[in-house]
Amino acid sequence: MSGRHVTGTRRNPAYLWGVIVVVAVVVVVGGYFGVQAVRASGSGCDTVDQVSLAVDPTLAPVVTDVLAHTDVIARGCTDFEVRAEEPTDTATELAGSSENRPDLWIPDSTLWLLKTLRSTGALPEVTKSSVANTMPVVVSRKSEARPVDTWLQVLQAQGQRIGDPLVSSAALASILGALAESEVAISDAKAVSAALVPQAQDFGRIADLPHDTSDLVKQVATDGGTSVATEQSVVTYNAAHLDAPLGAVVPPTGSYFLNYPLAVTVAAGPEYDSVKSAGTALSSVLSTQTATDAFSAAGFRQSSGIPLPDNRGVGSVASLELKNPLAIESTLRDWSVLALPLRTIVVEDVSGSMAAKSGDSTRIALTVDASVGGSALFSDQTEMGVWAFSIGLGGGGQDYRELVPLGPVTNIVNGQPQREAILSAIRGLPALVGGGTGLYDTTLAAFRTVKENYDPNFVNSVIILTDGANDDAGSPSLDQLIDTLQREQDPVRPVVIVTVGITTDADPVALQRISAATGGTSYVAEDPRDIPDVFVKALNSRTQRIGGQ
After folding, report:
1. 109 neighbors 247 (Cβ within 8 angstroms)
2. Rounded CA gap, 252 and 234, in Å?
3. Pick from 207, 353, 398, 465: most CB atoms within 10 A?
């Protein structure tokens, strides 16, 4: 808040976001909307305070227009300097010591206030819980529109575009909608977590492409398919493209609404109370029928969430609420790690016990089937190699054999893409079955191989699948292996070992200790047919190590 208590004639700077016809003159200058100040003398105000107001870019033009049509007394003798600003930028300003910190803030969701609480330790005071409303929807071409039953189904859809939940409230709200469904047993929380894996991995591929909500809407119009956008963005697009409008649907379960709160964000001090009063006045202005009509014309719902008039939008929608607020933080943490591509060696046990019967099949056959299916979870950004192990398999006393070297799955290996080479190697595992379980030597060798060419742009890991305990008498003991892993683990360049015990014949204690030594996680698949789920858990387990650092 600067330049308060201004009397007489003065002019505010005006800032760029767009060209809007208002009663006051708006001058385009660099990222802000400026509402021209009125004369304090003769206005009924002894002074006119100047208050900075950061507003989500989707709502900023409407707020500017409403304020321009409001007299200074109704504005609480305040001149609001409105700037269209992405919530990520405002949150960064509030978390630091930026001189550009706004006095008031209207983000697109209370979710941003919760993020601010985590970064600053203080929750901004809210003067109006909801200025306007919208919600995530699934947008498609009208000819391609299909109903969806749940938000989980939306997240599971192959090729679904949802944007980045770290910066997009619409993307995050779609995930929170699925979690809210799971809280009332409409879907399963584990299935939601599993659905995030391919979504996050795929996002790593498109992160450098435009993926704002409006960009996703345009991509649907141009390329087809579906995206998660907001009702407001679709209504706005359709108003400008009457010849080819898009369709939007919401699951019958409802949606997690975006509520555009008004919060006081000025730093604590002598100006706080006057800014809070200005926020109260602004709240009143934005509650008028004039403001409500303006928001509606721009595609926003009233704070109550009632449907838009004239059959615009998706009609009546139930509000999904998340009972566990900690799920928001864990979801953001998990995504931030899952979006990193994976660099891993998958180490498969081919000892003689893998030939044991399991139902009408064998452990190795079921493991192969599950591994082939699980490979689809790894995006094209993945770097992967495959080893097989049993005592002496590598020759010369070496217990492991490299079947496919660690590298990008898009590499060409012996004339074929690395991903295909990996699948071929996995399918060929049954021919290698025999011998004892050389677990400890293999584990250490894989760990060192991944560490040797550590890449900080990836999650570096080893995934070990085994059905037995180490029985190589010439290998280090378990305690010696653990000591070596802990000594060689670099906390700045961590390599995570994830272990998967196949059936209860595996050594769960040893596997747990191996994983724990590197911050990884251990699982036991009592039935080899559980392996596909374990692959998902193995990917998700990255979040426990990196997200908790």
Report:
1. no
2. 19
3. 465
Question: Residue 73: what pLDDT?
Answer: 94
Query: Where does 489-530 have alpha helices with state H?
Result: 508-517
How far is the first Cα of the chain from the last one, in angstroms, to the nearest whole number? 37
82-90 average pLDDT score: 94
**Cα–Cα distance for residue pair 63/60, rounded to 1 Å:** 5
CB atoms within 10 A of CB 209: 10
Q: Which of 231, 228, 249 is nearest to 155 (CA)?
A: 228
Residues linked to residue 501 through DSSP beta bridges, in sequence order: 466, 524
Q: Using CA atoms, how far apart are residues 322 and 182, in angstroms rounded to an integer?
A: 10
Tokens of 428: 């060929």
pLDDT score of 35 more than 50: no
CB atoms within 10 A of CB 309: 10
pTM: 0.70
Check if the beta carbon of residue 24 is closer than 8 Å to that of residue 34: no
Distance, in Å, from the CA atom of 135 to the CA atom of 147, rounded to the nearest integer, reads 17
- Rounded Cα distance between 367 and 349, Å, is 10
> Residue 16: what pLDDT?
25
Per-residue pLDDT at 205: 56
Which residues share a beta bridge with 400? 389
**Which residues is 502 bridged to in the sheet?**
525
Q: Which two tokens stand for residue 319?
A: 């509000």
Which tokens sit at 354? 């893998």
**Residue range 37-70, pLDDT digits in tens:** 333 444 689 899 999 999 999 999 999 999 999 9
Distance CA 441, CA 464 (A): 12
Cβ atoms of 375 and 382 closer than 8 Å: no
The Cα–Cα gap between 176 and 324 comes to 10
422 near 404, Cβ under 8 Å?
A: yes
Q: Which amino acid appears at position 80 of this protein?
A: F
Contact 331/192 with Cβ under 8 angstroms?
Answer: no
Report, as an integer, the average pLDDT of 246-270: 95
Integer angstrom CA distances of residue 75 from 35, 48, 173, 283, 507: 12, 10, 33, 9, 71
pLDDT top residue among 316 and 536 = 316
| DSSP string across 233-286 | HHHHHHHH-TTSPEEEE--TT-B--B---EEE-SPSSTTHHHHHHHHHHHHHHT
Tokens for 107?
A: 């983000």
Task: Give the count of alpha carbons within 13 A of 519, CB side only.
Answer: 19
Q: Classify the phi-psi angles of 503: left when phi > 0, otherwise alpha if psi is within -120 to 50, otherwise beta.
A: left
Residue 317 in tokens: 């929608």
Judge whether residue 13 has pLDDT over 70: no
How many C-beta neighbours within 10 Å does residue 149 have? 13
Q: Answer yes or no: is pLDDT of 184 > 50.
A: yes
What beta strand segments (E) does 91-249 contain? 104-106, 125-128, 136-141, 226-230, 246-249
- pLDDT of 532 > 70? The answer is no
